[in-house]
Amino acid sequence: MTELSTPEPSQSTKHPPSSPHLPSAVFCSRLAYRSIYSDCSHPPLIHTVNTPSPHTVMAQQDNAARIAEAKKQAKDQPQKAEQTFKSVLEQGPGKSDAAARDYENALMGLGELYRDQRRTNDLAELVQQIKGVLSSLAKAKTAKLVRQLLDLFIPIPDSLETQITVTKSCIDWAVQERRGFLRQNLETRLVSLYMQKQSYYESLTLINRLLKELKRLDDKLVLVEVQLLESRVYHALGNVPKGRAALTSARTSAASVYCPPLLQANLDMQSGMLHAEDGDFNTAYSYFIEALDGYHAQDETEKATAGLMYMLLCKIMLNAGDDVNNLMQSKHALKYGGKGLDAMKHVAKAHTDRSLEEYETALADYRHELASDRFIATHLRRLYDNMLEQNLIKVIEPFSRVEIAHIAKMVGLDVHQVEHKLSQMILDRVIIGVLDQGQGCLEIFDEPERDAQYDAALNTIDKLSNVVDVLYTNQASLLE
After folding, report:
1. For residue 40, what pLDDT is reported?
2. How far, CA to CA in Å, does 308 sit from each of 155, 175, 325?
3. How many Å from the N-terminal Cα to the C-terminal Cα in the chain?
C-alpha cells in the first residue's frame, strides 16, 4: 500500500495576508466580525452618535455667556442688552437642546426687558413675531412659552386692551396649528380678561362654549377653572344663586381630580365671598382662613393680602373689635402688612367708635386700597348705611318733631344727604313719620299698637275653616 501524503497547505490558506495599511489588531477584529456574521444575509446596523463639533460647542457656550451678561445689563444698559437678545434670537432655536434652551432664555430675557420698561407694543410685536418659530417646537414647550410671555403683560398698567388683542391673536394661531389644549387655556385666560374689562356678556358667551367642549372631553382640571370663572361672573353681576350653583359644580368636578393648591385656594376664596353675600360672616371667615393658608404656601403675596383683608372685614361686620386687634398682631399680618391692612384697621376703629366722621375720613384717606376691591367696597358701603341708620335713630329718638338741619349737624353730614337717607328709612318703615320739606322738619309718629281684635278674628276664621273641612269630609263619607 502506498502511503498517502497530506499536501502542504498553500500560502493563501495558511493565514490571510496582513494589510500594510491596517494595524494587526484592527485587521483581526475585522476577521472576527466577518466570521461571526458570515451566515447573515445583512450585517447589523452600526449607529453612530453625532457629537457636536468643537466650534458648535464653543458657539453655544458663547451664547449662554452673552445671555447671562445681557440680563445683568438689562437695567443699566437696556439698549445693549436688547441687541444681544435679538442677535441670539436671529440664530433660531437650532437642533440641539442647548441651542433651544439659549433661544428660550433670550426670548424671555427680551420679554422681561420690555416688561420692565413698560413697552407694551414692543412686547406684543415680539409675541407676533415668534409664532412661526414656535410652530417647530414641541407642543408642551410652546404652550409654556406662550403662557409665560402673556404673563409679562400683567404688571404693565393700562395694558388690558393689548392683552385681549394679543390673546385673541394667539387663539387664532392655536386654531390654525390645531393645538386644542393651548387654545382652551388661552380662551380661559381671555375670560379672565373680559371680567377685568367688565364685559360680562362676552365672558358668559365664551364660558358656555368652553363648558360644552370640556364636558365632552372630560377635562376636569380646566373644567374646574372655567366653572370657577363662571361663578365669579355671576357674582359680579349680582346673581348670587347662579354663582353659588356654578361654584358647587366646580367643587364637584374638583373632587374627582387632583386640584392644585392655588386653584383650591381660589375655590375657598370664592366660597367665602358668596357666604359673606348671604350675611354668614362666620362661615365666610373660615373659608378665608383656608384661602390665606393656600396663598401663603404658594407665595401669592397680593392674593394673601386680599384674603387677610377679607378676614378683617368679616370681623368688622360681626362687631368683633377685639378679634380685629388680635388679627392685626398675627404672623400673617406682620408679613403682609401695608396700607391695605392699615385701612381696615382705621375702618374697624371708626366702626367701634360709631363715628361717621372717622369712617368717612378712613374712606377718603385710603380710597385706592378700599375702593379698588369691589367686594370690600360693597360691604363697606352697606356697613356705612347701617351705621348711618343707627346714628339717625339715636338722634331722632327723643323727638316727635325735629329740624333736618339739626339732625345733620348732630351726625356731621350734609343736609341733603341726611334728607335722602331719612326718606329711604321712611319708605323701608325703619321709622314711622313724614318729611315736611316746606318747614324742613321731620315729624315722627308713635308706632301704632297692634289691635288684638284682628288676631282674634284671624284665629276665629282659622277655626271655622277647620270645622268646614271636617263637615265636608263627613258629608262625603255619607254619600259613598
Report:
1. 45
2. 22, 41, 13
3. 142
